[in-house]
Amino acid sequence: MSTTDDERFSALFAATNRDLLAYAVRRVSDPADAADVVAETYLVAWRRIAEVPREGRARPWLFGVARRVLANHHRGERRRSALADRLRAQLGEVVPPADAGLQGRSDVELALAGLDENDQEILRLVAWEELARDEIAVVLGLSRAAVRVRLHRARRRLAERLTLITSGDEPASGDARKRSRRTGHVMSEWASARSGVEEAR
């Protein structure tokens, strides 16, 4: 890496490390895992510094790298727990314990937990990371049009589940609880999209 590249990487780290760490912390159960994800993401950026976009597109590019690192992390966790899961099934533990983690959560949080992971992720990118539609396209590796369709459908499904939950017709399911434990994050609030980002609304 040249001196110029080294300076650019240092500037990139200074400008994005807090946002990237927040992105990772929200998606793992252990903060130490988030630190590992961020470190691996910046290692990729350091090795591929010439490929990192400029002019404000570096942040979503880093989120995209972190998303792939997280996917590898979660696959590793699933492999490590697969044997334990099979043993529990063989022992006949068919009734899961009460999930205290869902108690005290808002209706919006419960509705979000009931969606599939793709819907949850695109809504998080808008609400937590405050990304615009074209930035989300970079993170997810999709076209802007595909992001628009997915975001519209995810918001519709969230509204439908929220209606069911608030009416008492459909509490969060066991599957939703499993997804919530796997992502490891309990939302403290449902942030609104970044002010002024019209297309992500």
UniProtKB/TrEMBL annotation:
InterPro entries in UniProt: RNA_pol_sigma-70-like, RNA_pol_sigma-70_dom, RNA_pol_sigma70_r2, RNA_pol_sigma70_r4_t2, RNA_pol_sigma_r2, RNA_pol_sigma_r3/r4-like, WH-like_DNA-bd_sf
Q: Which UniProt keywords apply?
A: Sigma factor, Transcription, Transcription regulation
- Naturally occurring in which organism (per UniProt): Myceligenerans pegani
**Lineage, uppermost ranks:** Bacteria, Bacillati, Actinomycetota, Actinomycetes, Micrococcales
Report the protein name in the record.
Sigma-70 family RNA polymerase sigma factor
SUPFAM superfamilies in the cross-refs: Sigma2 domain of RNA polymerase sigma factors (SSF88946), Sigma3 and sigma4 domains of RNA polymerase sigma factors (SSF88659)
Show which residues constitute the signal peptide: none
Q: Where is this region: Disordered?
A: 169-201
- Please provide an example of a Pfam family that matches this protein in its UniProt record: Sigma70_r2
Q: Which residues form the RNA polymerase sigma-70 region domain?
A: 12-80
Query: Which residue intervals define the domain RNA polymerase sigma factor 70 region 4 type in the entry?
Result: 108-158
Family assignment from sequence similarity: Belongs to the sigma-70 factor family. ECF subfamily.
